Amino acid sequence: MLLDLKDIRKSFGEVTILDGVSLSLDRGETLALTGDSGSGKSTLLHIAGALEPFDTGEVLINGKALSGLGDAGRAEIRRDAIGLIFQQFNLIPSLDVAANIAFQARLAGREDKDWTAKLIERLGLSDHLGKYPEELSGGQQQRVAIGRALAGRPPLVLADEPTGNLDEATGDAVMDLLFELTETSGAGLLMVTHSPRLAARAGRRLHLRHGTLTE
Amino acid sequence: MTWPVLQALLGHWRRHPFQMVTLILGLALATALWSGVQAINAEARASYDRAASAIGGGQADELISPDGPIPLATYAALRRAGWRVSPVVEGWVDGPGGRVRLIGIDPLSAPPGTPAAMAAVGIEGGILSFIGPQGALLATPATAERLEGGSRPVRAVEGLAPGLAFADLPNALALLDRQDVDRLVIHPDQPLRQSPLTEVAPGLERARPATADDLGRLTDSFHLNLTAFGLLSFAVGLFIVNGAVGLAFEQRRPMFRTLRALGVSSGRLVATVVAELLVFALVAGLIGVALGYLIAAALLPDVAATLRGLYGAAVEGTLTLSPVWWLSGLAIAVAGTALAAVTSLWGVARLTPLASARPRAWARANRQTMLAQLAAALLALMIALGAGVAGHGLLSGFILLGGLLIAAALALPAALTGLLALAGRQRGTALREWFWADTRQQVPGLSLALMALLLALAANIGVGTMVQSFRDTFTGWLDQRLASELYVTAETEAQAAEMLDWLDGRTDAVLPIWDTEGEVLGAPAEIYGVVDHPTYRDNWPLLDAVPDVWDRIGAGQGALVNEQLARREGLAPGDPLPMPGGWTTEVTGIYSDYGNPLGQVILPNGVLIERYPDVDRLNFGLRIDPARVDEITAGLEDEVGLPPDNMVDQAALKAFSLDVFERTFAVTGALNVLTLAVAGVAILTSLLTLANMRLPQLAPVWALGVTRDWLARIELLRSVILAALTFVLAIPVGLVLAWVLLAVINVEAFGWRLPMHLYPLDWLWLGLLSAAAAGLAGLWPARRLASRPPSDLIRVFSNER
Ligand SMILES: Nc1ncnc2c1ncn2[C@@H]1O[C@H](COP(=O)(O)OP(=O)(O)O)[C@@H](O)[C@H]1O
Ligand SMILES: [Mg+2]
Prior knowledge:
The structure holds 2 protein chains of 2 kinds.
Chain A: E1 3-12, E2 15-25, E3 30-35, H1 41-48, E4 56-61, E5 64-65, H2 71-81, E6 82-85, H3 97-107, H4 113-123, H5 138-151, E7 156-160, H6 168-185, E8 188-192, H7 196-199, E9 204-209, E10 212-214
Parallel strand pairs in A: 3-8, 3-9, 6-7, 7-8
Antiparallel strand pairs in A: 1-2, 1-4, 4-5, 9-10
Chain B: H1 2-15, H2 17-52, E1 62-64, E2 70-71, H3 72-80, E3 85-95, E4 98-105, H4 115-122, E5 137-139, H5 141-147, E6 154-156, E7 164-168, H6 169-176, E8 180-181, E9 183-186, H7 197-200, E10 205-207, H8 212-251, H9 253-261, H10 266-311, H11 323-350, H12 367-390, H13 393-425, H14 430-481, E11 486-489, H15 493-503, E12 509-512, E13 515-520, E14 523-530, H16 534-539, E15 542-545, H17 549-554, E16 559-562, H18 563-569, E17 576-579, E18 583-591, E19 599-604, H19 605-611, E20 619-623, H20 629-640, E21 647-649, H21 650-703, H22 708-749, H23 760-786, H24 790-794
Parallel strand pairs in B: 4-7, 5-6, 14-19, 16-18
Antiparallel strand pairs in B: 1-9, 1-10, 2-8, 3-4, 3-9, 5-7, 11-20, 11-21, 12-20, 13-14, 15-18, 16-19, 17-18
The structure holds adenosine-5'-diphosphate and magnesium ion.
Keywords (chain A): ATP-binding, Nucleotide-binding, Transport
GO molecular function (chain A): ATP binding; ATP hydrolysis activity; transmembrane transporter activity
Protein name (chain A): ATP-binding cassette domain-containing protein
């Protein structure tokens, strides 16, 4: 199993956000996570991405348990196994598009020039490689984020409302690319969205409500 | 309506207390250094004023003799002719606690209102305690302390001129071993019928009294130096204030916009912001002035010692400050705040309710800004060079200095960006490439702090090089100048003759060092005599001379002049030199004479005696085997009866001279360190205020798999590298500064030029120090970053940023 969440509990102070959540995801699978605003979708994604610690339960990524890991171990998992796409502010402001796309793959020591060139070409970024994030439109920025998340061919891609800040037409185009390219790379995709329309495009759907998951 | 607006504005500081501390600290430090220097200057000037008004209230005209002292007989003749004049004699006496300027007056004939004469009447026991052979010396309590335990009784009197001791004329004449007086003070109201002055005393001239200005002119350069340093520190402090105000305004931009949208007029908004800044300025100003007082109090004793040693100016070592000084300190704080906040205020005034709520990319590299800065740097450079080439005098020297520093500071961001781009050119790991790119982007945000650091470092290198060059040249010069092993002063000419008898056969040479004073080319000068002796031939520090200079001295021809006189009057070997007494000699040589504010002429000794027969013949330099110094000293004391105080061996004299110089530069040294400390604070505060704005740049890198620990280490390395690069750039700036100080400022201020030496080892230390300071300044923000909860970093990616 690529990703295994077992009975995860998470509270912020008095407020319990996740109250025993379990899910699993395999390579090549796509899973959409829906729920109301504030229901804890992002929190769940951050826990799965080794970004946020959890209170009880266990997360396994490629069979490796997160609970025993320190800061360095978690960073290593993020670097080697996970591609991340957030709603916005994904990119490193001081690096240009080319460097942003290659950054994580190089960090993990897995730079694949042909694959990166193919991604850039398919994402339509060939003319923007020397530009800096602040010079790009929102849709372009998210395409760079997709390129970066996939450049190192991580087994797991996590996306948190990747089109939440885009207009519908742009968002749909970005979403097409995300589905197409994750499929090509063979990764498993866990995507958070509050749009039923987008969720419908995923292989599986889960709904988060009052801290627990339902189909 | 103003109150809720103010409340909204002030809420920001409650949430960012550190920013408030930064703002107040920067402003307080700037004010402190500035007003500290002003306090020192004010105290010195007050001392000059009091010294000048010590006799005749600084109002009455005086009679002086161009040929030197005035015989008492002349005084008596004037009195008989109906002139109401009062004699004054001046000189230095050595008290147990140090040298004091002694002024002898005649309290009975002194013009009404003379402070010392009034004090003489007012002391316990009345005027009889002042006059007569047992009469006391009068001085301020601080000066009286220095005289305590001497041969004369001393009375402390408040309100007298500082550093001066007053004695009844006969007592002063005895103490100074003189039979004549220096000047005669003319009463403002004279009887109607007198014989004309030209008949009674044809040799005397009527003159305006010496005023505070005379002493002021002499010490002007010193105070200008201090002021320049105060200004530099103030500027460095304002960099901090500007940074803090700019950031606070940038972060409150959304709030300003909301307030405008809610119907607050632009005028009211600006007025409220101004009120807010005014409060800060006053609070910081008060702290700053208090700090300035402490700085001044700490530095003043050294300054007083310097002024005494270098210029003979008497300055009290304690502070008494007027309310005006406090007020002007506050005013400068307010003015500084206004200056530092003007761009931000302009931004608030132009803010429209519909302006973007997102903070501008405040710390983003901005090509346009950098180009504008480069253009301004070029302009400053041109003004500096213009002043250097076309201008004359100290002021143009300082314009040259200031222009160069400003140009260097303005060019710094572009230079750093260039260097960092070069460093980032090589391909390395992804993290290394990101490091260089990100450091380059950091430059604009840190540029003010780095400029402050550059200025402080350059000033440090420049002044350090000057002081070290000075010290090296000076010690070498002292070795040449003080060639005799023992210097002795006889009490009377009879004793001098006895001494010479005793010394006969016991020394290698006895060199007379006789001198008088006179006016040469319109300014007071010292006139010395010299004999032709290998001591001088081998050692005298000649800068320029005719080839057979010593042969001609031996033959009784020509004169040597010191560098400051030669520079002031444009004299070169071969030029004629008119001397007091209406004769003319020829300049045959020019020698360096560091530390002397006066011009100096050295004549062949025979000529000195012939032209100025009443010269004191009491001082001698003795060439002896250094091992026999103690033996000779003891012999002179026991057999000739020379007081031990009248014998100074070479080592003691060198130590004394060096001490004067060390003290001169102790003040600049202290200001140097303070300026560097302010720059360190500027870096720390910039890093801390930038730390929050850094999160969006760091969070993606963290999310992609770099630990917080690593990021913190990289951040630390970044500030060290930026400081190190700034330091490398500061070296050439500092060297140019040193050159200007040595070759322009010193020549204008003191009249001598020093050779420049380089001290790379000192730079190494300074470089390590600044890197360490930057590292230390970076440590706290780095530690905070390392221990940030992940949720802080995650929040960067969410909507609610
Ligand atoms: N670091 C945090 N500290 C406190 N509360 C938090 C934190 N992060 C999220 N929350 C709260 O947890 C709840 C779930 O947040 P989130 O996972 O972002 O929801 P969603 O993504 O579904 O909109 C919200 O009420 C949010 O305010
Ligand atoms: Mg969310």
